Amino acid sequence: MKKNHLLTPGPTPVPAEVLLCMANPIIHHRTPEYEEIFAQVKKGLAALFQTRQDVLVLSSSGTGAMEAAVINLLSAGDTALVVNAGKFGKRWADICRAFKVNTEIIEVAWGQAVHPQAVADALKANPQIKAVFTTHSETSTGVLHDIKTIAAIVAGYPETVLVVDAITALGATAVPMDDWGLDVVVTGSQKALMMPPGLACIALSQKAWKLTETSQLPKYYFDLKKEKKSQAKNQTAYTPAISLIIALRKSLSMIEQEGLSKVHRRHQLLAEATRSAVAALGLELLAPESPSPALTAVKSPPGVEVSALRGLLSKKYGVTIAGGQDHLKGKIFRIAHLGYMSTFDTIIAVSALEMALKELGHPVQLGTGVKAAQKILINL
Amino acid sequence: MKKNHLLTPGPTPVPAEVLLCMANPIIHHRTPEYEEIFAQVKKGLAALFQTRQDVLVLSSSGTGAMEAAVINLLSAGDTALVVNAGKFGKRWADICRAFKVNTEIIEVAWGQAVHPQAVADALKANPQIKAVFTTHSETSTGVLHDIKTIAAIVAGYPETVLVVDAITALGATAVPMDDWGLDVVVTGSQKALMMPPGLACIALSQKAWKLTETSQLPKYYFDLKKEKKSQAKNQTAYTPAISLIIALRKSLSMIEQEGLSKVHRRHQLLAEATRSAVAALGLELLAPESPSPALTAVKSPPGVEVSALRGLLSKKYGVTIAGGQDHLKGKIFRIAHLGYMSTFDTIIAVSALEMALKELGHPVQLGTGVKAAQKILINL
């Protein structure tokens, strides 16, 4: 008997209550019953995005919603500023370039947060910039960017919008779209929403909706104006992923029941506990300065192969953690605190890490990390 | 206690065995376990498409795969020929136009099949046509087009491809992609695949892959060359809808177990039984000449409001059928034979129809349609 523990920053574990929603007989979406469900989903998403704008649901991965942001706001030849501080920051640049948007990049070392001043300088230097694209929580490095400050900077430019990939941030930390003045917020279902992958969500400010009026990039499946019209009537432009929508209603109601600030605090404490354990074990964080509450990226200690560590954790302990991506492959491992995670998921993560490191010959005093984590988790 | 019977041409009923797959704990997709599942899905899809080409899976509705076909084959300013014989034929034209493709239309009265000769004439008249877009089974009218003959015509043009929306055809009738020489075949999960909506599939011939080398339309999420590369390694370019993929493996294995020709014969007989019942009840088919085995469209008899009929069926009998779309709204109703449907689903459809018509004051001798259906269904 081996119990499996999914501790990756997406996909994340899905509560049985949510999984079971998907085992119900499928219903037709052109029915009052479905429309009532969709109305509840919209309400739950608006609470999560902390916005009075419409949060639109798309049947796609989070990347689909990222593409939707680019193609609905911009035209070929427009200029965009992209904060590239990891794999998902780079994705904004890749999408912009695929659609022939002039793309200026702020390059940030992977593991560091962008200096908001760098955004201010870039905007000042180039008044052509129509949109700033950034991640909030960078999943590839475990960094949380200071979106509040960046938003205040972009707000000074009446013709420029801020587009935020909050795919691992939303639900793990506060993303108060309206209060901070974020123009576009994008997320995916398989992160803090405690859902399987397959749905993406996107919300636009009035400033961003105004840009959709002039955008010339061709679009059909991801046409947000068409979606806005349909979703106002609790429908979607095309057949929605019905079973996922129904499951989402359940997961959103679980988030509502726990209370958003408690959900955020839980993520925060799990992350702090993990970081404290990592320090107690003498390991080094990739992003000690601006850590995300969604996940913790840890440098693999000398002599320990990440692939061997992950393999042992998976095979012997049923614990799945993530490795590094792109040039961080083999250099770091990533432990998530994302979504349906609580005290003992973190205890499992730290405990399994200790045992596996010891088995791989790395000097570890068993229980040291667990003890450090417990000291923090007792407050949860 | 009211039992629900979903008899619409998408979404369609999902077997409990498939639904329960989605209630299993989520697994990570970057694992050998997932890759083995995906490999089986690819094999099952290739058998269904009757092709040796790769069948690619996308996380989107069927419309997403339709868009993928257009943007991966063509460039703005290219010329396409579209067969518009219903709502979904029209969608090809809408997508082509959204991407600034010159779009020639063959207009066909809704309820009729296109004359293959019309395609031959159009191709002869305009050598610029790079792609012919058509539906196979038109869901809005219940017509099955003669794709085999059309494919033979298009095959005579070495620079022109045939793109087939087989969203309701595939699995309901034979779509032998390689044998017929179809260049692109598109489907969605919520039809004969006996799955919830949320996945789409697309396969390209070598002739179509060649066109992807010159296509200039911008693309990112639906970039099929990138997907082909990833899916060759049993991965996807972006996070897949994992739970739907796992469910799809199950539904494909059920199709394989029944045997594809038996699956097609089942659809054929359910459709014939329904048509026979409709005739016995003195009702008129919308598409008597080229009926699809996926669904049957019936003209509402004088004095019977489609909305009243559908409402009564739904409220009193728990039977959901579809109405007409666009200009056929209020004029027809549609009964599906699509996917997880067997003898008694058709008996239920006919029986409920008889009872509801009688209750609405239409002269019906109860049991007449059922008897006609039984005579055919006894052979299944």
Write the layout of secondary structure elements.
The structure is a homodimer of 380-residue chains.
Chain A: E1 5-6, H1 16-21, H2 32-49, E2 55-59, H3 62-73, E3 79-84, H4 87-98, E4 102-107, H5 116-125, E5 129-135, E6 137-138, E7 143-144, H6 147-154, E8 161-165, H7 177-180, E9 184-188, E10 199-204, H8 206-212, H9 224-232, H10 242-258, H11 260-280, E11 284-285, E12 295-299, H12 306-317, E13 319-320, E14 322-323, E15 332-336, H13 343-359, H14 368-377
Parallel strand pairs in A: 1-13, 3-4, 3-5, 5-8, 8-9
Antiparallel strand pairs in A: 2-10, 6-7, 9-10, 11-12, 12-15, 14-15
Helix pairs in contact in A: 2-10, 3-4, 5-6, 10-11, 11-13, 11-14, 12-13, 13-14
Can you give a write-up of this model?
The structure is a homodimer of 380-residue chains. Chain A has 380 residues and is of the alpha/beta class. The first copy, chain A, has 2 domains: 5-11 and 259-377, Aspartate Aminotransferase, domain 1, CATH 3.90.1150; 16-257, Aspartate Aminotransferase, domain 2. Chain A contains 14 helices and 15 strands. Chain A has helices at 16-21, 32-49, 62-73, 87-98, 116-125, 147-154, 177-180, 206-212, 224-232, 242-258, 260-280, 306-317, 343-359, 368-377; strands at 5-6, 55-59, 79-84, 102-107, 129-135, 137-138, 143-144, 161-165, 184-188, 199-204, 284-285, 295-299, 319-320, 322-323, 332-336. In chain A, strands 2-10-9-8-5-3-4 form a 7-stranded mixed sheet, with helices on both faces. Chain A has a 4-stranded antiparallel sheet with strand order 11-12-15-14, covered by helices on one side. In chain A, strand 8, helix 7 and strand 9 (184-188) form a beta-alpha-beta unit. In chain A, helix 10 crosses helix 11 and helix 11 packs antiparallel against helix 14. The model of chain A has no long low-confidence stretch (mean pLDDT 98).
